[in-house]
Amino acid sequence: MSRLTVVVSQAPGKHPAKRALEESIVAALLLEPGLEVSVVPNLYDLGPDHTGRLFLGSVRGDLVVLSWLYPRAAFWLLDRDGIKGHAGETQLKPPADDDEDDTPAEPAADKPQAIGAAGTVPDRHIYTLDLRDFNKHEPCVAEVRRIAAECRDRRAAKPANAPAIIQLGLAAKEPAPAFAPEALLAPAGRRWYPVIDYSRCTNCLECLDFCLFGVYGVDSLERIVTENQDQCKKGCPACSRVCPQQAIIFPEYKSAAIAGADTGAVGGLKIDLSRLFGGDVGDALGTAVAERDRELVNDGRVAVGATVGVAKRQTDKPATPKDELDKLVDDLDALGL
Prior knowledge:
Layout: E1 4-9, H1 16-29, E2 35-40, H2 51-58, E3 63-67, H3 71-80, E4 86-87, E5 125-130, H4 138-157, E6 166-167, E7 170-171, H5 181-184, E8 195-196, H6 206-210, E9 216-218, E10 224-226, H7 238-242, E11 248-249, H8 256-259, H9 273-277, H10 284-298, H11 324-335
Parallel strand pairs: 1-2, 1-3, 3-5, 4-5
Antiparallel strand pairs: 6-7, 8-11, 9-10
């Protein structure tokens, strides 16, 4: 019988309450039949050669990852690392989010078609759970049990002649490499880079135009990718603010909307009108421009303001009825702001 792999991704640092929760979950799940339980350092910090990431890439069946990240951020972080699968739905309900920095509004009525994940998605499911949702281990353990039963039922329902799962060019029948627990937990240095949610990304390339630090590029199919992640400026989420579809995630940013919470936005931008009309540049685009200028100056370069990489209107697209953002911009233009 195929075993379900469960991975606990540790929080950065050594917070005693977080470590205690992680240890309680692992201790409870180790006693569960049919589970393969492992622990790795903070998922976001794992470099391409880290043993924890190599282990995740070796998993060929269904996978559950518990981390201190929003589920959407964790899923697309795994996808960018080549750990692909269909997003599994969980029944854990997170508490209400009181994020005041990026208050979400209703999403646009006509959602553009996203480009979706690249390549072939393996016939398996990946479930991502946020450890911040509960301060006790029981809800997480119960959900893993439910997921394990769901995966068993799904496997049992498959035809006997269904094709085997193939991932990373390795047939499922080949033995997975062995990884020692102590190697999985080797220290990982802190990192900062954007993660692209391809279930939202429309490949408009506005982030490529806006970022002046060479972080973004395109692949052989001209799809946007994070090409040089280590050139991203630590703590700067400017490109996320200009993304029309909120498809760019910085998993450890303080604001939920940028960190990967499942929120919507008016016209794709997150706007705080009270700050805007209070005299500060409080709209998402203005904030992004200021953040980018700050990093340019820190690099010894010249601030460019809104003169570079800012798409005021996408004139190459057919005319469509104005949305709330268009009307807001027109009103601001009329006021001379």
